[in-house]
Structures are given as structure tokens and as C-alpha cells.
């Protein structure tokens, strides 16, 4: 229940920021959009271990899923893990190429959020108020 109160307060604060102070929200977005760690550099040092682990994990997931027809999606997860395991083992340059393709920003969520900031602010205020209502009145306190 404490988590719901915390989520309601955060929702209310961001709703107010969206409506009243888009400059502060933009500055906060600029700070939070910085890269903390480049995963490619960390994984490339242990690419053989990562490749073997992904390959074994993919094989185990696929093998485990054969007995259960309703868990068909595990085959897809296993194939993806096997693919990336083999890619790490056989073609580390392929991982770098794939990473550079995936690092391209197609749609900036900051721009979308700021374009609809009034609607987002109102929605967040309504959600925050409803969460507080749900915690205090619907839970029987």
C-alpha cells in the first residue's frame, strides 16, 4: 500500500511539472538522458562466456518447451538466445553492427511528451488522485 501512495505522489508531482513547469521537466529530461554505461563495451570483454551462456540457455529453454504445447513462445525465446549466442561466438563484428543499427533514435519520447504535455499532465493528476482515493477510501481506512 505504501508503494501505491508513493506512485500517487510521483504521478501528482509529474502532473504538476507537466502543467506548470515544462522548463524544469526539460532540464530533468536532459540530465536523465545521459549514458551511464555502454553495455557493448562490458560484454565484449567476456564475449565468449556470454556467447556460451546464451547458447546453452537457448538450448535449455527450447528443449524444456518441447513437452508443453501451450508454451510455444518459449521456442521463440530459445531461438533468439541461440541466435545471439552464436553471434557472440562467431561474429563479434555482427554484434557491433546490430548494436549500431539499434542505437538509432527513431522517435524521441521527450518531444512527444512535451508536445502533449497538457494532456499528459492532466492524465497524471487524475491517475494520482485516483490512486490516493483508492488507497484511502476503497481499502477501508
Describe the structure.
The protein has helices at residues 2-20, 22-32, 39-44, 47-65, 73-90, 92-102, 109-115, 117-138. It has 141 residues and is an all-alpha fold. It has one domain (2-138). It is extended. The relative contact order is 0.18.
Detail the topology: elements first, then pairings.
Layout: H1 2-20, H2 22-32, H3 39-44, H4 47-65, H5 73-90, H6 92-102, H7 109-115, H8 117-138
Alpha-carbon distance between the two ends: 11 Å
Sheet bearing the most strands, described? none
Rough outline: extended
**What's the helix count?**
8
Q: By helix and strand content, what is the structural category?
A: mainly alpha
Summed over residues and divided by their number, the pLDDT gives a mean of 84
Strand content: under 5%
Number of strands: 0
Rg over CA atoms, rounded to whole Å, is 22 Å
Give the gist of this structure.
80% of the residues lie in helices and 0% in strands. It is built from eight helices and no strands. Helix 1 (2-20) runs antiparallel to helix 8 (117-138) and helix 4 runs antiparallel to helix 5 (73-90).
Which key phrases capture this entry?
141 residues, 80% helix, mainly alpha, single chain, extended
Amino acid at each position: 500500500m505504501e508503494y501505491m501512495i508513493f506512485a500517487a505522489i510521483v504521478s501528482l508531482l509529474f502532473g504538476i511539472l507537466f502543467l506548470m513547469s515544462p522548463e524544469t521537466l526539460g532540464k530533468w529530461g536532459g540530465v536523465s538522458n545521459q549514458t551511464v554505461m555502454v553495455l557493448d563495451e562490458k560484454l565484449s570483454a567476456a564475449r565468449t562466456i556470454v556467447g556460451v551462456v546464451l547458447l546453452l540457455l537457448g538450448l535449455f529453454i527450447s528443449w524444456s518447451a518441447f513437452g508443453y504445447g501451450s508454451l510455444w513462445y518459449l521456442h521463440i525465446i530459445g531461438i533468439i538466445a541461440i541466435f545471439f549466442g552464436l553471434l557472440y561466438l562467431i561474429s563479434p563484428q555482427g554484434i557491433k553492427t546490430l548494436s549500431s543499427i539499434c542505437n538509432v533514435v527513431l522517435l524521441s519520447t521527450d518531444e512527444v511528451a512535451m508536445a502533449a504535455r497538457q494532456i499528459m499532465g492532466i492524465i497524471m493528476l487524475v491517475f494520482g488522485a485516483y490512486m490516493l482515493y483508492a488507497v484511502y477510501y476503497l481499502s477501508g481506512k
